[in-house]
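Researcher: Checking consistency across runs. Here is IS6 family transposase again:
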Amino acid sequence: MNPKQPFKWRHFQSEIILLCVRWYLRYPLSYRHLEEMMGERGLLVDHTTVYRWVQAYAPEIEKRCRAYLSQTNDSWGVDETYIKVKGEWKYLYRAVDSNGNTIDFMLSAKRNARAAERFFRKALKACHNRTPRVINVDKNAAYPPSIDELKKSELLPDDCELPQVKYLNNNIEQDHRFIKRLVKPGMGFASFNTARRTLRGYEAMNMIRKGQIQGVEKGDILGQLEFVYQIFGVAA
């Protein structure tokens, strides 16, 4: 994809492409739902075409919105949820702060200390995140050794706390529901790469929806729409 001309050689206008991609990533719709919805508007768009658009532009939305994210706070909640990929369960690691703002996410084939450490390293690198003072997790035995390794590497301060109390993670367990609700209409993913690319779009639209974009408030639907068009250089 040409970063300066992301819609070059596409047969449909950029506004139509972004409309379909936004709706798919924001609402619990299937590709066939969008095919029908476009058909009602006189546009013949095959569901496989919408799928290709989502695969191309979902990661791009997430990549482009990162620079506009508001800073999260230093109280983290970390948990993983199950995502079905090609009939098998994989693991979506997610973190939110105490205000419910998304810190970061990562799809993993494994659920172990190495995967947890990879996720923490990814989250700590994000420019909108603060070094955590406390990380609330559940009883997953993989978390303590991964945190110990990060402290040895001096990526985390020694006084960073790691409470393993399930009820403290209510924030993130509630936040999982939004992502799960979007995954459900597709009944899982056909490949790990398809899941990874689509989930990047789901998470980006979730952050936009929650008001994590600087200057775009939660509930400001038109402002959120204009933001997505803006980052692609498209007039709303």
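Researcher: Does this match what you'd expect to see?
Model: One thing to look at in this run: The mean pLDDT is 92.
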